[in-house]
Amino acid sequence: MGVIKDILTFLANNVFGQVPILIGLITLAGLILQRKRAEDVVAGALRATIGVVILFIGVDVFTGGLASFQTVLASAMGTTPPKADHSLTGFLSEQGGTIALVITVAFLVHVLLVRVFPAARYLYLTGHLMFWISTVTVASLVTIAPSANQLTLVLCGAGFVAAYWTLQPLWIRPLMRRVMPDDRFGYAHTSSLACLITGYAARPLGSREKHDTEKLTLPRQLSFFKDVNISTALIISVIMLLGVAFADHGVVAKAAAEMDDKLSPWVWGLLVGLRFAGGIAILLYGVRMFLGEIVPAFKGFSDRVIPGTRPALDAPTVFPVAPTAVMLGFVTSTVVFLACLAVSAAAGWFTLAPPMIMLFFVGGAAGLFGNVVAGWRGAVLGGVVSGLILAVGQGFTWGLYERTAPELSTLADPDWYAIGWLLKAADPAVGKGTVWLVPVIALAATVATLVLLGRADRRRAVAEGEPEAAGTAAAKA
Questions:
Q1: Transmembrane region positions (predicted)?
Q2: Does residue 23 contact residue 49 with C-beta atoms inside 8 Å?
Q3: N or C: which end of the chain has fewer CB within 10 A?
Q4: What's the distance, CA 300 to chain centroid?
């Protein structure tokens, strides 16, 4: 038993937890299954791996600036995060092994579900979120069932997480088909609920054809804003400089000194904006590079291992579709969150901490999904929805994890809040010793959903005059 545990933990830490390795291995296997020449297999796998590495370099470049951005804005708004007796670091040291086992067992269950039910369609491959979703789930289970042993936490957590990984790309699929009409890959990101709400709420606001952010007509004097790199640099630099103007001088000086102790705070603020734009450019380049390899290579799995399956990938993979909408969603979400922060502080409510990285990825993704429905109006709505969810969710969820890892409420995406409160709703039943209801209900709901989707696919195939394809319609959909 100990050997099996060690193997599963190794896989979680060194394969599923390392996105470049995971994507590289899947690309390698997919090309081998397609019987490509050895040189093409090696080159394709390396290009996919390097593409992911470049993507994360871009993320590191601009998130480093966002972390400083967050500190300066919090100072400018006069807020500090609430104190807690427990920390995420402590929780991970206690439950890190459990989380690693949940990731591995959940992925095996997820692969089984996708293999057995063609309607599942997508294999969840966003490695870092596989870790965070498992962490949130384990923290929630520890909260509602503090006496549960490790085996119970692993099996219950894995069942719930596998259900989420299987269903999440499916509930966003109708909107994702607007973003990616050829259905080359699915969307696997914990911003999905904000994107879903935005997509359906934006319907009355107009159409993409009339208001597409990527086709906006600007006066000649402002035409340079059409270049997303320039607009990003200008907008973020202006916000940073405003933050520098109102923040405590000591806080700004300390943040600037981390880059260069001889640097003026004003020049530092400008450089952060420029680095942010550069990081986004690097990220988008990496996305294009690894997508160019993983999507064709995945055909090997789709043809030979899991018929009809596509990869479900991280949020940045869709950002090149409408980068202006991404930036509009991010800026709007930031403004809305800061407004909520000011209201909360003035009323003496919960002290919010600006989660700039989440505001970018969630606000940007929701802005993009809003754009494909209603153009720039939908993108703005996506930012509003994201800012509100992140502000309200943070305020209401801190207490949920105060005995485990309260930072999970300030580092959270919308789906994290949904997972936490969904499991909290099971507290009365779990309190009676029925914690096993969590994975049983989650997996039963998943199987029922997949069966219904499979039947719908078969009916659609017959209605389209392809009765011979009805039995495999889901695999072809």
A1: 15-33, 45-78, 98-117, 129-145, 151-172, 228-246, 266-287, 325-350, 356-374, 381-401, 433-453
A2: yes
A3: N
A4: 26
Residue 24 Cα distances to 49, 156, 272, angstroms: 5, 30, 32
Cα-to-chain-centroid distance, residue 288: 18
**Residue 334 located in a structural domain:** no
Structural domains in the chain (count): 1
3 state SS of 186: strand
- H runs (alpha helix) in 260-298: 265-297
The verdict on residue 108 lying in a domain is no
pTM over 0.90: no
DSSP, residue by residue, 286-345: HHHHHHHHHHHHTHHIIIIISTT-EEEE-GGGGGGG-HHHHHHHHHHHHHHHHHHHHHHH
In angstroms, the CA 454 to CA 326 distance is 34
- Does residue 268 belong to any structural domain of this protein? yes
Residue 398 within a domain? no
**Structural domain span for residue 295:** 1-77+233-312
Query: What whole-number distance in Å separates Cα of residue 413 and Cα of residue 168?
Result: 14
- Contact yes or no for 399/80 (Cβ under 8 A): no
Residue entry with tokens 């590289």 = 24
